[in-house]
Amino acid sequence: MMRLSSGRGAIGSSYCGTDRCIKAVLCAAGGKTALLLRSSRCPTMEGSSSSQQKKEDFMYSPKIREDFIPRIYRICKDARLPMTEWVNRVISQALSPHQTPNPERIVMKEAVASTPQPETLIVVKSDDGFRVCSPMNPAKQYAVTGAPDNPLCTCEEFQAHMDDPEFACKHIEAVQDHLRKQNHHDDGNGEAGVAPTNRLPQVPAAPATAKRGRSNGHASPDRQAQMLLKRSVSPDGRIDSLSVEFTLPVGNIATSEIKQAAERTLQLQAEIVQGFLGATSKAGPSASARGTSAAPAGHSALAMPGEPAQILAVASMDTRKGHTLFLNVLVGKQTVKLFGDAQKLGEAVTAAGYPDVAPHIADGMSLNLPCRVVTRQNGKYLNIERVLPAPGKA
Fold first, then answer.
1. Which domains does the chain have, with CATH numbers?
2. Do the Cβ atoms of 144 and 152 come closer than 8 Å?
3. With a threshold of 0.85, does the pTM exceed it?
4. Which of 47, 148, 266, 360 is deepest in the core (most CB within 10 A)?
């Protein structure tokens, strides 16, 4: 039990701990009042030569620091009572905002701070593999191809470790984890996924036949290049194109080897394109691509290229390229403009079977010349690609 008192009675409240008791007594000595603290029934202070240090340690207990010492300090300050040097030092240290930190807490905080935070990456399926980027910088994307057997990445870290068959950058690890999650779930649809890279298991080493690196100065054949074929075909048969793309990782290959590999790749690309063009030329254009029309009843069934049209007149208009001439051509029920200078329009009239009219082409000239034209739809516009003579003028 603790009580602060003076000659005029108690001036404070009492404090009692669970296992020890601190008594503060106000006494008069030489006409001056001082605050004395002494401990009773305190096991840590009895029979010890370092009682002064244990007193200070005792004063640092949570109960003392948070309740008892501030209360004594406020009461004595209000009563204007001077305190002994030891009490002043202990109280000032206990009330100091900068306490000596616990070394165990320091180690714990450092361990928590040193724990790597998970990095989130976005994985998106693409035509040639996967695109991996950070949500903080989506514009900077890296392509991962050949996963899961022979993964390749376009990042600088992977290119610097091309000779290490067991190395996998964080982008490859994110793709591997994305593929594993798809294999474990039946509803995997290959859409964009998010993979924290620091929790990924180690990617197993590739088989011996599919390792990265170079043998005798040459890259392994299965990792030398990636080919992507894209073919575009329109329902009407007018569009039938092929795109051949090669991705050739170079890594630390010498400049001469890069040139040789590029030459071989371009040669292979040319052979593929030539074979495609030869196959399409043998098949020939479809009837819709040629713009043919069925022969009238009672006439020959030979197909005529193009479709019937009529060159109406020569006119002009202002365009982004300046004042330009054009031919008004009636194709079916639609009037189509064929732009060009006087020479080009004259060539079109000559191709329609009227060479004597071509030299006299001028703005505002009325023609009304029957012909045939081959057209091609370009968005909302119908373009004339070729002018042919009418059946009677051929």
1. 5-94 (no CATH), 120-218 (no CATH), 224-281 (no CATH), 307-393 (2.40.50)
2. yes
3. no
4. 148
